[in-house]
Amino acid sequence: MPKVSTEYINNKKNSILEAAFSVCKNKPLYEITMKDIIKKSGVSQGGIYCYYSDIDDILIALINKSNTNAGYKQNIDEIIQSSTTPKEVIESIFDFIGKNLKENMTTTGKIQFELTVLLTNHPDRQEKFMSQITEMQNSQYLMQQLFKKINEGIEIGYFNPILPSKNILCFIMTSIDGIVRDSILINCYGPIKNTQIEIDEISLINTLSKAVLLMLNAY
């Protein structure tokens, strides 16, 4: 194979990822095959394996690319640095979560939701995905910072929670998971997509934020 430039290789990889993203918007992640990507990208079967070894490598690269473009961790750090009180930090983090869900629900949100289904049914593939996808690290970082600020607020007496902190933290995680799940089901799938029910992710996360602050006795 003739020697090619790094720029050429990166451009080729990006074109494959763009094709993969297009396929993912119209087909569940757990049903996508290399044949789907080859057909959409126009790259030959032999050619595509010069850039990605299998479908998992493509999906990991696709999700990581979308997360890099979002500047996830940087946004959280900026929120923490610019906020003056624990209450303001929590409100701003929840605001970021709501806007991020709204902007990415039918694209990367759908892909990441379907990734959960994929890994649940194929536990043998979990280790590779979990170790290489930055979204896992981003989500952990966000929740770590949110929980850290809540606990710091409790320790300094800024918050006087009416419930044990572990119960509040569990409530936050399960509530966000439920909002994400129902939003994706309603916005992305078949008959459910046409339902009269409308979910406003920003409004729901804002409601969750207020509920958490009430539990923390912050008002």
TrEMBL record:
SUPFAM superfamilies: Homeodomain-like. It comes from the Bacteria. Signal peptide: none annotated. Keywords: DNA-binding. InterPro entries: Homeodomain-like_sf (IPR009057), HTH-type_Tx_Regulator (IPR050624), HTH_TetR (IPR001647). The keyword Oxidoreductase does not apply. Residues 10-70 form the HTH tetR-type domain. Residues 33-52 bind DNA. Gene3D superfamilies: Homeodomain-like, Tetracycline Repressor, domain 2. Pfam families: TetR_N. One of its GO terms (molecular function) is DNA binding. PANTHER family: ACREF/ENVCD OPERON REPRESSOR-RELATED (PTHR43479), ACREF_ENVCD OPERON REPRESSOR-RELATED (PTHR43479:SF11). This is DNA-binding transcriptional regulator, AcrR family.
